[in-house]
Known about the structure:
The protein contains three helices and twelve strands, in the order E-E-E-E-E-E-E-H-E-E-E-E-H-E-H. The protein is of the alpha+beta class. Strand 2 (11-17) and strand 3 (22-28) form a beta hairpin. 18% of the residues are buried. The model has no long low-confidence stretch (mean pLDDT 94).
Amino acid sequence: xxxxxxxxxxxxxxxxxxxxxxxxxxxxxxxxxxxxxxxxxxxxxxxxxxxxxxxxxxxxxxxxxxxxxxxxxxxxxxxxxxxxxxxxxxxxxxxxxxxxxxxxxxxxxxxxxxxxxxxxxxxxxxxxxxxxxxxxxxxxxxxxxxxxxxxxxxxxxxxxxxxxxxxxxxxxxx
Length: 174
């Protein structure tokens, strides 16, 4: 059984009794599932965003992502959120099972949605609080090195999901 420590507008902090004490964690108040879009163009470029994240007060380089609205499927959310955040249009090619976002901190679950990007010429439809720049990055065996250099040069943070994704790629030398 969990006990509420604090309830804010968007998040609730809870604690749960364990064998050795209490474990603290957070839940979103309205939605506990999200999608992360891995969008790739026919030219083998990947859609990445740069967004100021207030938790760090720094820009994070990451995949586009968004919360699943009530009644939406992960596929529907991915198509909607990709369009809103980047203006791009894509076709869903695969969806992962739900995976833990940060299992020691939050109950949030993610769906990793792979997409084939079919149009890059649309307009973003951002919420008032959002400022998102998006870019296409050529996927090759230097992408981690290029992302690290960009992050270092601009004092950005790389998303762990993004970093892990590229570490897992088996690049062929061109």
